[in-house]
Design a protein that fits this description.
Belongs to the methyltransferase superfamily. RsmH family. This protein is of the alpha/beta class and 332 residues long. The chain is 36% helix and 11% strand. The radius of gyration is 21 Å and the shape is globular.
Length: 332
């Protein structure tokens, strides 16, 4: 048997260019000698950079297709890289055998690698099965599109995609599937474009609907909330949590998690002041976005927002969705 071919996972040649990489490394500075959990391994861009900077990395991912990239880093950094298959919502239990942990980084959302693989069904730019399952199992986007009633589908597109024309899109989808099931990405994209039209210079009309379906298929908001609280349980005082999100709905959850008072009711100065909870996160950094230099080489970084904070000595909280602004699909 010949030598096994390993994919090139270097940051220059890998299939996914990690966004805000310099800012992520700076958030853990000094990083050499630290033990960091990369909760969304993907093609390993963050993991490689942190390993090259001298950190030990425990990488987690639920996507089976990332295994070759994990294998490559295991060969190169065999004593400082550990890959654990699983969902980042369970990162505290998955990393339990590798503690104590100094930091956690999460890159939320779909990767370029997944978008570029037509057979995964994430992109309306490539024809493929309407799938969108990151784990490769469970309910697919086609299952939702072909089964939900008009109002259920409209409510989902509105809640998870902020699609203001969700009702018209849902009506066109339901009408189209009466002829045949909707099975491919381009079929769905064309139905959406036909329903609401397309203006020159605007984003593709299917952008918000595809985002909504992907979030629903992968329970992304539930996973994000669970992961944030898992990181809170995992990290001791002084540990750093760094989160990169890609749209306003995700960023709102992260912002309110770090600072619960952002999501609570305002207090009148004329009323008795309500005692606030002990802060679990301190040194909350201002949101960071990609600069012109990064955007010129990686346009997909344009919507990325990085937030980071340091764990305090207060006990971790039970998982709680209230107050985080997690979108809910209204019942039909």
């Amino acid at each position: 048997m010949g030598k096994r071919s390993m994919p090139d996972t270097s940051s220059q040649a890998g299939p996914h260019v990690p966004v805000l990489l310099d800012e992520v490394l700076a958030a853990f500075d000094p990083i050499a000698g630290k033990r960091i959990v990369d909760g969304t391994f993907g093609a390993g861009g963050y993991s490689r950079a942190m390993l090259e900077a001298g950190a030990t990395v425990i990488a987690i991912d639920r996507d089976p297709s990332v295994q070759p990239f994990a294998d490559a880093l295991s060969v190169e950094f065999d004593d400082r890289f550990f890959f654990v298959p699983g969902t980042f919502s369970q990162l505290d239990s998955l990393a339990a055998d590798h503690g104590p942990i100094d930091g956690v980084v999460l890159d939320i959302g779909v990767s370029s690698m997944q978008l570029d693989q037509a057979e995964r069904g994430f992109s309306f730019m490539r024809d493929g099965p309407l799938d969108m399952r990151m784990s490769g199992s469970g309910e697919s986007a086609a299952d939702l599109v072909n089964a939900l009633e008009t109002e259920q589908l409209a409510n989902l597109l509105y809640a998870f995609g902020e699609e203001r024309k969700s009702r018209r899109i849902a009506q066109f989808i339901v009408a189209a599937r009466e002829t045949k099931p909707i099975e491919t990405t381009l079929e769905l994209a064309r139905i959406i474009e036909k329903s609401i039209g397309r203006k020159p210079g605007d984003a593709h009309p299917a952008t918000r609907s595809f985002q909504a379906l992907r979030i629903a298929v992968n329970a992304e908001f539930d996973q994000l909330v669970e992961a944030l609280f898992a990181a809170e349980r995992l990290l001791d005082e002084g540990g750093r949590l760094v989160v990169v999100s890609f749209h306003s709905l995700e960023d709102r959850i992260v912002k309110r998690f770090f600072d619960p008072e952002k999501g609570g009711p305002s207090q009148s100065r004329h009323m008795p002041q309500v005692q606030t909870e002990a802060r679990r996160w301190v040194e909350v950094a201002k949101a960071r976005k990609a600069g012109e230099a990064e955007l010129s080489g990686n346009p997909r970084a344009r919507s990325a927002v990085l937030r980071a904070a340091t764990r305090s000595d207060a006990d971790s909280r039970p998982v709680k969705f209230d107050g985080l602004g997690v979108p809910k699909v209204r019942e039909a």
